[in-house]
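Minutes, project huddle
Topic: does the predicted pose make sense with adenosine-5'-diphosphate bound?
PN asked that the exact inputs be recorded in the minutes so nobody has to dig through chat later. Recorded below.
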Amino acid sequence: MSLLKVEELSVVFRQRGREDVRAVDGVSFSVAPGETVGLVGESGCGKSVTSLAVMGLLPRRGVLVEGSIAFDGTELLTLPADKLRTLRGRDMAIVFQDPMSSLNPVVPIGVQVTEVLVRHRGLSSGEARAEAAELLRRVGIPDPARRLREYPHQLSGGMRQRALIAAALACSPRLLIADEPTTALDVTIQAQILELLKGLVADTGTALVLITHDLGVVAGMCDTVHVMYSGRIVERASRHELFASPRHPYTAGLLASVPRLDRPRGERLEPIQGSPRDTLPWSRGCAFAPRCRNRVDECARAAPELHGGSHSLRCFNPIEAKAVNR
Amino acid sequence: MSSEPLLSIRGLKVHFPVKKGVLLQRVVGQVRAVDGVDLDVGQGMTYGLVGESGCGKSTLGKAVLRLVEPTAGTVVFDGVDVGAQSPEQTRLLRRHMQMVFQDPFASLDPRQSVESVLTEPLRTHGFTGDGSKRVRELLDIVGLPAGAARRYPHEFSGGQRQRVGIARAIALNPRLIIADEPVSALDVSIQAQIVNLLEDLQEQLGLTYVVVAHDLAVVRHVSDVIGVMYLGALVEESPSDELYAEPLHPYTIALMSAIPIPDPEVEERRQRILLTGDLPSPVNIPPGCRFHTRCPFRQPTRCADEEPGLREARPGRKVACHWVEEIAAGRIRAAASAHDPTATEVGVPVT
Ligand SMILES: Nc1ncnc2c1ncn2[C@@H]1O[C@H](COP(=O)(O)OP(=O)(O)OP(=O)(O)O)[C@@H](O)[C@H]1O
Ligand SMILES: Nc1ncnc2c1ncn2[C@@H]1O[C@H](COP(=O)(O)OP(=O)(O)O)[C@@H](O)[C@H]1O
Ligand code: SF4
Ligand code: SF4
Ligand SMILES: [Mg+2]
Ligand SMILES: [Mg+2]
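Predicted holo structure (tokens), as shared on screen:
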């Protein structure tokens, strides 16, 4: 049973004097308790807008949100604001890429974590402080009692990200959305944070939506992966399928462009030509067509639909499937 | 490696004073951004520098080009001691050594057309030939259309801007290019284009590179030799092929194990060595081995009070660790805390 079910989600930004921006275009995915689902794609493909839409954090004015977002059976798009707010602190939480922008710079870390505990779990302030220290310890912050009194700028980037995760964990959310949670961090700190998130999913059955552009992170973390391009999901598969037999030309192109540390050196990289800017509007064909090596005539005439079951594809001329023994 | 290195660095230190007070500024400490580095880069080679944010990679690159003044040490370029030159000689030397930056947008003036960005270095260095012909040539070399000359930086994508940045760097036919995070601001699919371009230029123009980056997979792909930095010092230097196969310094071991590999099968088999805590401040570099506060192999003797020098532990492989032989032979293993970030104890000698 899925905990979060997003169906045909579209987000359109209307800007005065300019063309509408359809940032998310008919995206569907679901996450079950204890499952980690990945959203991958290059910058601007709509990952963050999707996560903001799920959390109900998009501005109301000038933004059109369509489709359905059901959390544990409750439709969020029509839920009154106060009910949504309660749900957001207690059952669903989000961690952003830039921890500085989501922590209040003039409020000590401890107050920001205890606030959530007092508000959503009704703890006394003493209880909340003890619990907050325990949370900081759990996310690997040394000397938590002292750190609780410090302000965000006094912590390193890695510690701020951990403090933010601690705040997100304060209510043991059933759904956690992590939007590029380690992109700004060094790899050794990234390894700590990813280990922490893995433990959380395994121990408490939290459903995790992990947003990243790093295919290596996806390979180690996600059960199911959704590859996005220009606002739409173009390929969806279990991580083993996706990496062993990528079938969408964009996915295969991404995998061929990254050098691998565990492979002999010296093979030339095979980049995708052009840039994510060179897209065709979906209304005119496949958005990836201007950069695609597998392009056929049909690609510039109509938009391909997303087809298939556990391994779905949006492509007229996909790459041959490889046998995957799993 | 050829006999005479093109670039030779000895005992390089760059310290920045930390000041306090408003009127009478007192110096209360030193940021030891680069803290005694020796390295050689052979003609036509690529030297990769890796390490965590703040470990001094960019400062080292800038010190080579004299964009920051070293506190101590020498930089010798093609037999010439860079620090002993007059300002005019330094200016002339600089045309042979150029820099490519991380954020191509930040390093380009938004009001300058590409043509003017590219002719500027030509003018300052007294180029008398046909400027616009050279611009067309440069654009062609980096894979931009000739029409790009009349356009402005904001009209380009990140990858195209990086091509402009590279065109500017090669305008004067330099011999050495220091590329500071040349691809880290770019989308994955674009990174490969720029990596290939840098490789092609090296071949065509006989360039020597120092590539600074935190993405080890990219650095390893382009480099012949890799230097791993930690808190201002090199802790390991190795031919790039051997570094992943067998990292020797405990920091390199942890760093390598932390890098995610885009293959679920590999990820499932991997054993991660987690480092506890954060990078210490470069104002307070730990005494003894600078890595000892986070080292999962730390021993009760020597580590905390005796600084290990960079020494040849194997042919062609330099490591700054007292215990490298014992660790490589498996006689010292990582502490259990390396697999559980909440535990705290030191490395265990196997008896
Ligand atoms: N002008 C300066 N004044 C004082 N401190 C400085 C100055 N420039 C750099 N530093 C400090 O020196 C240290 C090394 O900085 P540097 O920019 O060389 O690191 P880096 O390895 O390039 O890091 P990154 O990966 O984040 O680019 C840092 O602690 C930095 O804050
Ligand atoms: N507030 C906004 N107004 C207009 N366009 C926006 C806004 N936020 C995002 N967009 C656009 O929506 C698209 C998707 O953005 P985003 O979800 O942030 O991408 P990413 O996949 O990098 O997270 C981009 O084209 C972006 O420019
Ligand atoms: S639909 Fe056509 S253009 Fe689009 S990815 Fe498939 S083959 Fe390429
Ligand atoms: S000298 Fe000691 S602390 Fe330093 S790296 Fe070697 S084992 Fe670790
Ligand atoms: Mg984003
Ligand atoms: Mg730097």
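Observations noted during the meeting:
- Residues 248-351 of chain B form one domain.
- The pocket of magnesium ion (ligand 5) is lined by residues A 47-48, 180 (CB under 6 Å).
No decisions taken; revisit at the next huddle.
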